[in-house]
Each structure stands twice: as C-alpha cells, then as structure tokens.
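Posting this for the archive.
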Amino acid sequence: MRTILSLLAIAVLVVAGLMYFGIINIDQTQSAVVQAPKFQADVAKVTLGTENKTVAVPTISVEKPANAQANAQAPN
C-alpha cells in the first residue's frame, strides 16, 4: 500500500513540476454546474532527429608479458 501511495505522490510531483515549467498547461473549458467539467490540455511538442557522422574510435591492444604466462604454467 505504501508503494502505491509513494508512486502516486511522485506522479503528482512530476505533473506539478511539468505544469510549473510550462510543459503542460491545463485549462478548464466548461464550468461544473450540472454536467462534468470539461478540460483541454496543451502539451509541449518534442521532435527527435538523427544525424549521420563519422567518428574516429581508438583501438586498444593488450599484450601479456612472457613472464606472466611462464609463471602461470609453472606448478606450485
């Protein structure tokens, strides 16, 4: 039960933060006299694009020393 309440509290804080920064704007468009109130929400538009680029990637080579291999093969 605590988990559900914690998640609900986090969701409320996220929505409040988004409303504070202007990403979400909720306006009541119809008053609640006899019918249920009507709301209209405007949210921010996010566009995502891609771009092709050539990137130089460094190569790494590891060489083990010969002594380490000889010591590893010697019986203790």
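The chain has a mean pLDDT of 81. Residues 2-20 form the longest helix (19 residues).
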